[in-house]
Amino acid sequence: MRNIVAGNWKSNKSISEAREWMLEMGKAMVNMPQDVKVMIAPPAPYLSELAGGKRNGILIASQNVSSFSEGAYTGEFTAEMLVSCGVDFALVGHSERRADFGETDEMVAKKVRRCLDSNLGVVLCCGENLFSRDEGNQESVIKAQLMSALEGVGLEEMTGVVVAYEPIWAIGTGRTASAQQAAEMHFYIRSFLSERFSGDVAAETSILYGGSCKPSNAKELFSSPDVDGGLIGGASLESSVFQKIIEFDSSL
Ligand code: 13P
To answer: Can you give the pTM of this predicted structure?
Structure first.
């Protein structure tokens, strides 16, 4: 499953806007390239309805998941619950959750474990901040994040993991990584996966780019052999714009 374009709505849209988007995107799916998997991560209250409704091949992801299994954890929802609602993936370790909700590497690793134990796919997010980039430490930051998040994950379990490289300085800033910066980091991540797991795992794992990706830069960003698609925030909110990214059509 190397080619994936995933949308992350974050905390946006009403339920009627979400339904409308699914309807529009569903109609457009027949015209989308058949070798690209389309995924959307709506806000949690809409997951059950969207995952249980007419999907037209659209994969549904949660933006979050509990690091615990069921029990007295008010406000949390477990990987098992998501699976029971028909959800396919959970985003884990997004930089906004790390920065704004105190998610530590340890919690991220627990979430990965919970998902894999429940057969819920993982979109594992990693990314360096501007300070680390300016210091030239981006590779060591990513290595530390991935080492920790994937600790104890077995070779076969990696079929359930997608990696998303999202440099924090490019998220929601309009300042995207250059195609070369993305290519270098994706190459680094694939090499890391090869060393940590195997050449086969590295070759088969999808590595998505996220951070101010839009129709005008998607084609260039996705042109690197190690960039297998994108995790799209703002530009996934309008289905017509999102479709252009999936089609690598820069006409918007
Ligand atoms: P933007 O595309 O809005 O920069 O967001 C990227 C992102 O965080 C996706 O998870």
So the answer is: 0.97
